[in-house]
Amino acid sequence: MEFNQGTLDELMLKAQQDLSSDQQSYKRKLNLYVWMAYGVILLLLLLFVGLVAGTVGLAFTSSVFLVLLLKKKLIIPLLIIGWMLGRVLFLGAGKPEGYRLRRSEAPLLFGQVNELTKSLNTPRVHNIIITPEFNAAMAQTPRWFVGGPTENTLIIGLELLMSLSKEELKAVLAHELGHLSGDHAKFNGKIYRARAMWEQMMHSFESSGSLVTYPMRKFFSWYAPRFSAYSFALARLNEYEADLSAATQTSAATFQSALVKTSLLAEITDEDFWPQYYRRAYEQAAPDTLPYTAFKQFMDAGEFGDLPLRLAKVMAERTSPHNTHPCTKDRVEALGTFDADELKLRENNAWQLLGKSAHKIIKEFNDNWLMYNGQEWQFQYQLAQEQLARLKELEQIDPNQLSLDQKEELAFLLDKFQRDPERVVALYDGIMASKPHDLDTGLRLAQLYAKAGNPRCLPLFRACLAKDELVNDACMGAYGYYLHLGDGNQANEWLDKLVAHGEIAERARQERITVGAKDPLMAPTLPKEAIDALAARLIAIDRVEDVWLCQKSVQYFRDSPVVVLAIKVGGWTGKDKVLEECFGQLPADWTSFIVTRDMDSALFKKVQTKGTQII
Fold it and tell me: Which of 186, 362, 480, 610 has its CA at 20 to 30 Å from residue 45's CA atom?
């Protein structure tokens, strides 16, 4: 998709203005975009059928044409168009995956869903699936082909079930079902199916890079941002409508509690539970308790650290201009006044609605986790044993004889294994005296100072604002420090910095989502040693013949490179595996894209022109 973010922002603003001023006119315009998508598909289908019929007819009536058809490979364009139409029309393969519940396994959950579908007057929910994530969603997918009957699947995350009360879960389910309720449901469904259809079709045409598909790629470059902007505005409005449905089925306070708990506990899960759980690999060759059993124990214990700070962070988030879901604060306030003191974080009995299937699902998810992560766990255990042995060696060296590298290594290991915190601070302090521009070390030292209530954290936090990747942690660290002091004014100043940075970070993320031939590309500015090291790794991969490297010019977070590689792979088959291996050799701190001539010939040529050949 080749359009710049500024164009999309302007279109989204125009769509929002149209929706606010005249909703019916807005819907007519959006409907026009929807039928345009279906019309293009129908036109292509008719064109394809006509070409095939004509080609077959000529082939049977003229042997000369048949020879020309095969010799000149004129049949290839027909095959390309046919393949793409097939991918677009038959989207049923993209159905959500997870543990598919049977009604007999969880009659209470199915009963609650049935009750809500009747109350909200929604279409039938055909499937309920459980996934590991901290989330809930409603998926509408074609049963067989685009334009045909759809299948409604309710997706519920196991972590979510283990975190909410039954009433809060009911409110969440009412929100998801609310997307299917009312007169707007059919219209919305049509919008989302059209959106899925053109995204699939656009991906197919963009990835082909063929001259046959060039007119369609140009059309979608014009169409995609307009349909995206107009459908986005409606999706944002529908979130508020679904919230209202949830509040009417339970109460405003219940759904507000569900919203806040979901945001808060999802963050606690990511920041506390999983890091703490993986730390067990330092001491255990195999986990003594598998993760989803441990997660249930974690939620039951309800020891969630500094809740006021975390709640303030959740409520400080702002609605992203590029996310259909408004932020938690906006959604909560739209339903009225919210009393944070009413939050009951330890009320988490929603998982009981799974009935006799609960333990079976937990066991299955645990087993799947172990299958995919058991080997990595053992690797981390072995690494920890080696590092602990190294730590023991370093601790036996006279502190006055330690080199700077050894001090850095010792500080890292003591910090990792949470030993002798006072010595860790002293070591990091000494390192900063020798390397005052080492902001990563400065941030860690600032965090340790803040934890101890030491004001020496503040100049370090301020220094970290100079590095984009550290701003978020620095602002949160300083905010928490002032909050503990009871200085709300200073705390809010850092919170404002955090919010401003969050908006910039979102724009930076948007810049890094895609890369196309119309994006500004430039010669690499990466260190020569980094490029040479990458070239050495790529040249060792079988069938990699030539590689060009360039960078996308970005407006935000310029110190974080966006790298584009054009790779020529030998042979006719198995290219995906080669490219996957190449991608695995790229540094984790780069935002990287790989393109071949088959994927996007225009972008491939531009990388060749603007970049540097490294192989």
Answer: 186
238-262 b/e with 16+ CB inside 10 Å = b?
bbebbbbbbbebbebbbbbbbbbbb
Instruction: Output Rg (C-alpha) for the chain, integer angstroms.
Output: 28
| Percentage of the chain exceeding pLDDT 70 | 83
Task: Supply φ then ψ for residue 515, to 5 degrees.
Answer: -145, 140
CA separation, residue 148 to residues 76, 82, 83, 122, 140 (Å): 29, 19, 20, 18, 12
Neighbours of 42 (CB within 10 A): 12
Q: Quickly tell me which residue has 């500024």 as its tokens.
A: 6
**Which range has the worst mean pLDDT, 49-58, 447-456, 468-477, 513-522?**
49-58
In this structure, the number of other CB atoms found within 10 A of the CB of residue 211 comes to 9
> How many residues are listed for the chain in this entry?
615
pLDDT averaged over the chain? 85
* Residue 203 CB neighbours (<10 A): 15
* 455 and 428 Cβ atoms separated by less than 8 Å: no
Residue 1 has pLDDT above 50, yes or no: no
- Cα(548)–Cα(612) distance, rounded to whole angstroms? 5
Per-residue model confidence as pLDDT tens digits over 106-160: 999 999 999 999 999 888 899 999 999 899 998 877 776 655 677 889 999 999 9
Could you tell me which of 95, 104, 162, 139 has the C-alpha nearest to residue 365?
Answer: 162
- Give pTM, 2 decimals: 0.75
